[in-house]
Design a protein that fits this description.
Structural class: mainly beta
Number of helices: 1
Radius of gyration: 12 Å
Distance between the termini: 15 Å
Number of domains: 1
Shape: globular
Oligomer: single chain
Number of strands: 8
Largest sheet: 8 strands, mixed
Strand content: over 45%
């Protein structure tokens, strides 16, 4: 995951790929709900992309954008993503670079 050219790029192997304009990220906050699975999972615009149960950040995307899950286009309204430094990600996407 990286911020480049005003876009947050999220990739989880071949299973998940999204390019989210920073201007479309309306909220970024820590999420402390329990997580029992790892990988890329979602339904109806809400997606969890994680390799850990810790450090989950919730990103609200409006307008929704498109992501690809195993090559299939899906709508992305909310993204839950695990990172090693949640505060750094929140600060970076909140800056709207």
């Amino acid at each position: 995951m990286r911020v480049q050219g005003g876009t947050l790029r999220v990739k989880f192997g071949w299973g998940f790929n999204a390019e989210i304009p920073l201007a479309s990220i309306k909220d970024a906050k820590p999420n402390n709900e329990r997580v029992y699975s790892w990988g890329a999972h979602g339904f109806r615009g809400r997606w969890l992309v994680n390799g850990s149960s810790k450090g989950i950040v919730e990103l609200t995307v409006d307008p929704p954008t498109r992501a690809k899950v195993m090559g299939v286009p899906v709508t992305l309204k909310t993204l839950y993503v695990s990172v090693t430094d949640p505060d750094a990600l929140i600060a970076e996407v909140s800056a709207k670079a």
